[in-house]
Amino acid sequence: MNKKKLIVPLFILLAAAVYFVFFYKNKTLKFVPENADIVVLIDVKKLTGQYISSLIAHPSKWSESKKKDKKTIPLKDSGIKIPDFLQIFHLKGAEFSEWYSVVELKDPQKFSAFLKSHQFINNGNNIFRKDQVFIKIEGENCILGTSGKSFAAIQQLLFKSPDQKTFTADRFIGSSLGSISFISGDKIQNFSIELKADEIEIKNTAETISFAAAISDMQRKNHFLEAELDEQNVKNYARFFNQNLVDSAQINYFKATAELEKVNDTIISYGYDDNFNETEKKTVQKIIQPNYIINLRSSAPEKTWNYFQHRKWINTQSQFTAIPFQPNQIERNEGGVIVKSTRKPIPLSPKLKENYFIIRNSPLLLASLSTLTSTEKKILSDIEYIFYGNKGENYWVNIKAKKGELPLILRW
Questions:
Q1: Which residues span the domain enclosing 151?
Q2: How far is CA 336 from CA 138, 318, 327, 331, 339, in A?
Q3: Could you give the number of structural domains in the chain?
Q4: What's the whole-model pTM score?
Q5: Which tens digit of pLDDT belongs to each residue from 239-268?
Q6: Do 173 and 32 have their domain in common?
Q7: Among residues 93, 112, 103, 80, which one has the least CA distance to residue 150?
């Protein structure tokens, strides 16, 4: 056979293989329950392509040697079927900290060995746990979560309900690397996720939104937190915590400034000596505490104060006990209330007439998060700040990382 005649069919076969490996995507989302109110999608093939292109552009990573624990099974040999879209969801009515995902298993036995090699503890009933990761093997599927509370409900919704509604990726994600979608009845509000060299950008618009004044103000100061939110933004955030707080207290504006400080904390304990006399023992330890000031404006300040008293959030020393960081002082004014720490008072930042909050990274913050793993601490230490901004119907979140020789996708 003429070799030249083989070139065209071989090229077609190669092109088809490349298409199915890197570009073809199954957009059916089998593992998003009908009662999910937040859905996060990650385009796995696009993420893989971005990783490969970044790796090619940074030859220093090619020869980088990594010590591998031969006892630890890598993800590629875990028995998991890698999906085209990783589907992460939050169930309506669940705690905000509860997030779940479901993946298919090619080999459940290999996956069990993978979990064992990574020191997951078998709690029985095919449920495994390591730190704050919970996993349940259900036949040829695996449910992962930050909690195990909703495993039974997810099993019922996804595997036992014959009329389970099936979503498609096109309802949630466009051409971006990922998406976050908020579901309310038939209404879905989508936010794109883009991973750049030294930042992660989340937004619901293609427009460029500028918050130069707020970011510039933050960079000139050393505050841990700066925030200013109008009534609608306060309501949006209250949905994750306590909607009644906004409705009952009639809060229509929030302004806050905070900084972190390491302070001495005295712990007093009591015991008895050899003669059974009561003794007092004082122990001093270093803890991280915020110094802060919060301005809550209200359309009905008297009702706001009465609501806080009804909830028993104001004690006889005029301290606002709903905030766990003490001591503080709560005061009434014509427009609402002011809550401020008293150990080291700080002034409230000027009003910028913007809707935003900025959380700066701090070594003190990392030192206080003792439950995090070394990998989690490394990721957090790489972040410079988290910024949220809103103008009208446009929302923008920017997770800014410190400048580095490598892009985030190769660092993390």
A1: 26-184
A2: 53, 15, 20, 9, 10
A3: 2
A4: 0.82
A5: 766 656 777 788 999 999 999 988 877 777
A6: yes
A7: 93
